Amino acid sequence: MIITISGPIGSGKSSVAKLLAKKLKYKHHSTGDLMRQMAKEKKMTLEQLGDLAAKDFSIDQELDERQKQLGKKEDNFVIDGRLSFHFIPQSLKIYLDADPTVRAKRVFQDLKNRPEEAETSLEKVLAKIKKRQKIEIKRYLKYYQLDHTDKRHYDLLLDTSEMPVAEVVDTIIRFVKNRLCRK
Question: What domains can be seen in the chain, in order of their start residue?
Protein backbone atom coordinates (compact mmCIF):
# COMPACT_ATOMS: atom_id res chain seq x y z
CA MET A 1 0.00 0.00 0.00
CA ILE A 2 1.15 3.52 -0.83
CA ILE A 3 -0.04 6.35 1.41
CA THR A 4 0.18 9.97 0.25
CA ILE A 5 -0.16 12.77 2.77
CA SER A 6 -1.05 16.24 1.59
CA GLY A 7 -1.95 19.50 3.29
CA PRO A 8 -0.81 23.08 3.71
CA ILE A 9 2.52 24.21 5.14
CA GLY A 10 2.73 23.40 8.86
CA SER A 11 -0.18 20.96 8.91
CA GLY A 12 2.09 18.16 10.13
CA LYS A 13 2.65 16.28 6.87
CA SER A 14 6.32 15.48 7.44
CA SER A 15 6.09 14.60 11.13
CA VAL A 16 3.04 12.42 10.58
CA ALA A 17 4.47 10.73 7.48
CA LYS A 18 7.75 9.88 9.23
CA LEU A 19 6.07 8.35 12.29
CA LEU A 20 3.43 6.59 10.18
CA ALA A 21 6.11 5.02 7.98
CA LYS A 22 8.04 3.92 11.06
CA LYS A 23 4.98 2.33 12.70
CA LEU A 24 3.96 0.57 9.48
CA LYS A 25 7.59 -0.43 8.74
CA TYR A 26 7.30 1.37 5.39
CA LYS A 27 9.80 3.58 3.60
CA HIS A 28 9.33 7.33 3.90
CA HIS A 29 9.69 9.83 1.06
CA SER A 30 9.13 13.59 1.16
CA THR A 31 8.82 16.15 -1.60
CA GLY A 32 9.82 18.77 0.97
CA ASP A 33 13.15 17.02 1.45
CA LEU A 34 13.55 16.83 -2.33
CA MET A 35 12.84 20.56 -2.64
CA ARG A 36 15.24 21.42 0.20
CA GLN A 37 17.93 19.31 -1.49
CA MET A 38 17.31 21.03 -4.83
CA ALA A 39 17.48 24.45 -3.12
CA LYS A 40 20.77 23.51 -1.48
CA GLU A 41 22.18 22.27 -4.80
CA LYS A 42 21.19 25.56 -6.42
CA LYS A 43 22.54 27.54 -3.43
CA MET A 44 19.09 29.03 -2.75
CA THR A 45 16.70 29.17 0.16
CA LEU A 46 13.57 27.07 -0.03
CA GLU A 47 11.57 30.27 -0.45
CA GLN A 48 13.78 31.36 -3.38
CA LEU A 49 13.36 27.97 -5.05
CA GLY A 50 9.59 28.26 -4.57
CA ASP A 51 9.68 31.66 -6.24
CA LEU A 52 11.76 30.20 -9.09
CA ALA A 53 9.36 27.26 -9.45
CA ALA A 54 6.55 29.81 -9.91
CA LYS A 55 8.35 30.92 -13.10
CA ASP A 56 10.22 27.78 -14.16
CA PHE A 57 7.99 24.73 -14.61
CA SER A 58 10.99 22.40 -14.95
CA ILE A 59 11.41 22.50 -11.14
CA ASP A 60 7.94 21.00 -10.71
CA GLN A 61 8.40 18.58 -13.59
CA GLU A 62 11.50 17.10 -11.97
CA LEU A 63 9.65 16.51 -8.70
CA ASP A 64 6.60 15.17 -10.54
CA GLU A 65 8.61 12.59 -12.45
CA ARG A 66 10.38 11.38 -9.32
CA GLN A 67 7.03 10.84 -7.61
CA LYS A 68 5.52 9.04 -10.61
CA GLN A 69 8.50 6.69 -10.74
CA LEU A 70 8.22 5.94 -7.03
CA GLY A 71 4.56 5.03 -7.54
CA LYS A 72 5.43 2.71 -10.43
CA LYS A 73 8.52 1.04 -8.98
CA GLU A 74 7.90 0.85 -5.23
CA ASP A 75 5.21 -0.27 -2.83
CA ASN A 76 4.68 0.02 0.91
CA PHE A 77 5.79 3.59 1.44
CA VAL A 78 4.48 6.86 2.79
CA ILE A 79 5.15 10.10 0.94
CA ASP A 80 4.31 13.59 2.07
CA GLY A 81 3.84 16.24 -0.57
CA ARG A 82 1.08 18.54 -1.65
CA LEU A 83 0.58 16.89 -5.07
CA SER A 84 1.76 13.35 -4.34
CA PHE A 85 -1.84 12.08 -4.40
CA HIS A 86 -2.10 13.30 -8.00
CA PHE A 87 1.09 11.66 -9.24
CA ILE A 88 0.45 8.40 -7.40
CA PRO A 89 -3.29 7.98 -8.08
CA GLN A 90 -3.47 4.42 -6.71
CA SER A 91 -2.42 5.67 -3.26
CA LEU A 92 -4.51 6.04 -0.13
CA LYS A 93 -4.89 9.83 -0.06
CA ILE A 94 -4.83 11.71 3.25
CA TYR A 95 -5.25 15.46 3.75
CA LEU A 96 -4.08 17.16 6.93
CA ASP A 97 -5.13 20.68 7.81
CA ALA A 98 -4.77 23.01 10.81
CA ASP A 99 -5.62 26.54 11.85
CA PRO A 100 -3.26 29.02 10.09
CA THR A 101 -1.91 30.40 13.40
CA VAL A 102 -1.21 26.87 14.66
CA ARG A 103 0.58 26.10 11.41
CA ALA A 104 2.66 29.30 11.66
CA LYS A 105 3.69 28.40 15.24
CA ARG A 106 4.80 24.95 14.07
CA VAL A 107 6.81 26.37 11.18
CA PHE A 108 8.36 29.05 13.42
CA GLN A 109 9.45 26.34 15.86
CA ASP A 110 10.78 24.13 13.07
CA LEU A 111 12.78 26.98 11.53
CA LYS A 112 14.71 27.40 14.76
CA ASN A 113 16.41 24.12 13.82
CA ARG A 114 17.41 25.54 10.42
CA PRO A 115 19.34 28.78 11.13
CA GLU A 116 19.72 29.55 7.41
CA GLU A 117 15.92 29.88 7.14
CA ALA A 118 15.12 31.20 10.65
CA GLU A 119 12.61 34.01 11.00
CA THR A 120 12.43 36.74 13.62
CA SER A 121 8.71 36.67 14.40
CA LEU A 122 5.61 34.52 14.25
CA GLU A 123 3.87 37.25 12.24
CA LYS A 124 6.54 37.10 9.53
CA VAL A 125 6.22 33.31 9.36
CA LEU A 126 2.43 33.55 9.07
CA ALA A 127 2.75 36.11 6.26
CA LYS A 128 5.34 33.97 4.43
CA ILE A 129 3.32 30.76 4.60
CA LYS A 130 0.20 32.57 3.40
CA LYS A 131 2.21 34.03 0.49
CA ARG A 132 3.75 30.66 -0.35
CA GLN A 133 0.36 28.92 -0.23
CA LYS A 134 -1.17 31.47 -2.61
CA ILE A 135 1.76 31.07 -5.02
CA GLU A 136 1.49 27.27 -4.91
CA ILE A 137 -2.29 27.21 -5.44
CA LYS A 138 -1.93 29.56 -8.42
CA ARG A 139 0.96 27.53 -9.86
CA TYR A 140 -0.83 24.18 -9.49
CA LEU A 141 -3.99 25.55 -11.11
CA LYS A 142 -1.95 26.96 -13.98
CA TYR A 143 0.13 23.85 -14.69
CA TYR A 144 -2.12 21.00 -13.56
CA GLN A 145 -5.63 22.52 -13.54
CA LEU A 146 -5.73 21.12 -10.02
CA ASP A 147 -6.66 22.60 -6.65
CA HIS A 148 -4.84 20.41 -4.14
CA THR A 149 -6.90 21.97 -1.32
CA ASP A 150 -10.13 20.53 -2.76
CA LYS A 151 -11.10 17.94 -0.14
CA ARG A 152 -12.86 15.76 -2.74
CA HIS A 153 -9.45 14.42 -3.84
CA TYR A 154 -8.87 12.63 -0.52
CA ASP A 155 -9.91 9.45 1.26
CA LEU A 156 -9.36 10.84 4.78
CA LEU A 157 -9.40 14.43 6.07
CA LEU A 158 -7.96 15.36 9.47
CA ASP A 159 -7.75 18.67 11.31
CA THR A 160 -4.49 18.42 13.24
CA SER A 161 -4.83 21.76 15.09
CA GLU A 162 -5.44 20.11 18.46
CA MET A 163 -4.03 16.64 17.75
CA PRO A 164 -0.56 15.47 18.74
CA VAL A 165 1.36 13.69 15.96
CA ALA A 166 0.96 10.26 17.62
CA GLU A 167 -2.81 10.68 17.74
CA VAL A 168 -2.95 11.67 14.06
CA VAL A 169 -0.85 8.60 13.18
CA ASP A 170 -3.04 6.28 15.28
CA THR A 171 -6.15 7.68 13.57
CA ILE A 172 -4.62 7.01 10.14
CA ILE A 173 -3.60 3.47 11.12
CA ARG A 174 -7.16 2.72 12.27
CA PHE A 175 -8.45 4.08 8.96
CA VAL A 176 -5.94 1.94 7.00
CA LYS A 177 -6.92 -1.20 8.95
CA ASN A 178 -10.63 -0.54 8.36
CA ARG A 179 -9.92 0.04 4.68
CA LEU A 180 -7.97 -3.23 4.40
CA CYS A 181 -10.72 -5.18 6.19
CA ARG A 182 -13.26 -4.02 3.60
CA LYS A 183 -11.21 -5.34 0.69
Answer: 2-161 (3.40.50.300)
